[in-house]
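>> received
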Amino acid sequence: MWLKWFPWRFVVRRLARAQGFIDPVALLARLRGFAQPSEVGEPIELLRAGMVFHARGLINSRVIQHNLDWVWPYWIVRQFDPHDESFIPRAFSITHVNLTHRNWTAVGWPDLDQYPIVDPRGLLTPLYDGWSLDCWIVTDDGERLLPSHCREAEQHLALEPQPAVTTTTTRGGLALTTCAWVELEDGRPVCRLEVQGHSERPAWLVISARPCNPEGISFIHDIRLDKRRWRIDETEVHFETHPESHLVNDYHAGDVALHLPDARERTQVCCEVGMATAAARYRLEGERRIGLRIPLRPETPRALKAGAWHEERAHRCRLEVPDARIGFLYDAALTTVILHCPGDAFPGPYTYRRFWFRDAAFIVHGLLSAGLFERAEAILDRFPERQDLRGYFHSQEGEWDANGEALWIMERFCRLSGRPLKPRWREAVVKGARWIAAKRLPDDGSPHGGLLPAGFSAEHLGPNDYYYWDDFWSIAGLEAAARLLDAGDPALAQTFRREAADLRAAVERSLARAARHLGRPAMPAAPTRRLDAGAIGSLAAGYPLQLFPADDPRLLDTAAFLLERCFVQGGFFQDMIHSGINAYLTLHVAQVLLRAGDPRAFELMRAVADLASPTGQWPEAIHPRTLGGCMGDGQHVWAAAEWLLMLRNAFVREESEGLILAGGIPAAWRRPGDRLRFGPAPTAFGSISLTLETDAQGGTEIAWEADWRHRSPPLTIHLPGCDPVAVDARSGRIRL
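>> returned
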C-alpha cells in the first residue's frame, strides 16, 4: 500500500533535473494537453510495439551507418544512398528505421501461424523477426550481382499449387533467380528456397546467412556447417547439395562479403556482438540450381492438411474479368486473407502479426464475401474469450470502436451464412451491447453529449478525441445485437434498439452543431475538430455500415472534401501517423462513391490497383515518391480484404432490403467480346452468381443464378450509364 503514497513524481523530477534532462512529468502533461481528456492516454499495446520497433531502430543506428560497405537489404541500400530519392538524412535521429521500402510478401500454408517473408529483391526471412538468407553471384574476376543493389528486378507471386515468390535480377551476363514457398513434408511445414544462377564466365553462386531483415538488424551469434546443414543459433538450414566452399566472419572481421575472393575456409563462427555472417559457395559455369529447406516451428501446432490450398479455393467466390491485373489482385488478396487467418485474424505477417478487433472485422468480412464461412467462424469463436467482465471486447485499451465492430461482424456472419446465433456467442453479444450503453457520456448539451468518451480509436484519426467513428460503430453494434436477439429475446432486442436510436439522435444533434460551425454538411472526425484527413473515419456511416442513405449530403460532402484536399497520385493520403497513401482508406472513399453511383469509384479502384506491388500486395501506407511502403506492415491484410469487398460490391451490393447488381462494372470491362463472371457471392438472402457478356453491337447481356434461403429480395440491375431496372429475383437474364 505504501507504494501508492510514495512521491514518485517528485523523485522522477528531481532525478531528471539533476542529470540535466527535461522534466518527464511536465512533458507528459503538455502532451496530454493536445488531446481530449481520456481515461486512456495511449494504448499500452501500441507503446510496447513502438518500443520494440524503435529498439530495433536504435540498434540499426549503431550498426548500419558505420558499416555501409556491408551487403545490406534493399531498403537500406536505397534509404542510405544520398543519390537516391529514398534517401533520408540521419542527423541526430535516435533510431534508423525503414520508412521508404516497407514491402514484403509472405508465403505459408493454411492454418500455419508462421510466415516466411520475401523482400522486393528476394531476401528471405524464414522465421518471424529473424535473420535472413541472401543470394549473390560473384565472378572470379570480381564482378558481383547483388540483388539488393539492383534498381530493377522482376518479381511475381505464383498462386498455384501454393503461394511462391520468384525474384529475378540480372547484370552483365549474370542472372540470378530465387523462388521461396512453404510446403509440407510428412505433415510438417518447411520453407523451401530454390536458387538458380547463370554466368557466362567462371563464378561462384553464393548463399549467405545475414544478421538482418526488412526491419534492420536481427542477431546471429553462432553459425556452424555440418555436412549439408547449417546450424544458425537454434535453427537449421538444410542444403540439397553440400557447399563446395564455406566462409564465415564475426563482426570485428567484417561482412563475409568483403572477403569472398580471398577468405580462409572455415566451418563455424561465434560472434559475441551477434553479427555473424556466412557464405556457402558453389562453382558456377553456365547454369546451376541449388535447393534449401528450413523447418518451421508453429507457435500453435495444428494438423495441417496436405491439400489445404486446393480445398480453400474450391468453393470460394470466383472472379473473371477481362482485366488480368484486376483478376490477379483479387486472387492474390484472397490468398493473403486465407493465409493470415489461422484461427485468428492477423493484419500482417510481420509488423502486425497480432490481433485487433478493428482489423478483424474487415478481414472477416472479406472472408465472408468469398464464402469462407468456416475460417470466419473459427475467428469469431475466439471473440468471447477476449471480452472482459465489463463486456468490453479488448484488443487495446481506449479503442471504443471494438464492441461495435465485434457485434456487427458477428451479425454479418449470421446473415451471410444463414446460420443462427450460436449459444456460446449470445452472452458475449448481450454483454457487449450493454457495455456500449453504459459507456456513453451523459447527454449534457455539450458537443459530445451522449456520445462515446474520448479515446484513441483508430490511430490514423489523430490524438484522443470524441470520434464519430466510435459512435457509428456503436450504433451499428447495438442494432446488430438487436437483430441477433430478435428471435430469442425480443424484449432485450427492443431495449438495444432504443439505445441505438438514442445514440443515433445524439450523433445527429452533434453533427448538426458541427455543420453550423463548419458552414458545410461534411462530417469532421470529432465534434470540435476542423475538417482534416481524420474525417475519413466518419465515412463509416456510409461504408461499411450503411447507417446513412447513399445520397446523404453529409457523406457526399465529406467525400468531396477528402477528394479535394487529401488525395495524392489518385489515392487518399493520410497525414496523421501514416504519412502515406493508404490503399484501404482510398477504397472506403470508393465504396461511398459506388453507393452514390459516382463513376469516380472505379478511378479510385484503378489507382489502388496501380499502387499494388508486383506480387499483388499493399503495405499499410505508401510513400508518395518511392511508392514503397512507409508505415506499418509491408503486406497489409486489411487492404487485401478491402480489395475483395470492393470487387464484391461492384458486382453484388446489398442496399437496404434488396440487392444492386453490376453497379460498379466500368465501361472499360464492357468491350465487344468481354465476358465477366462473379460468384457464388453470399448475401443476406442467399447466394447469387452473375455473368455479363458484351456483344458486337455494344449491348450487355446480364444473367444471374440464385439460391435464396427464405424469400427472394428486391433485385435491381444498375449498370453504370444505364437506368436502373428492377428484375425478377429468380434466375434469369436481361440485355441492356
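>> The longest strand covers residues 188-210.
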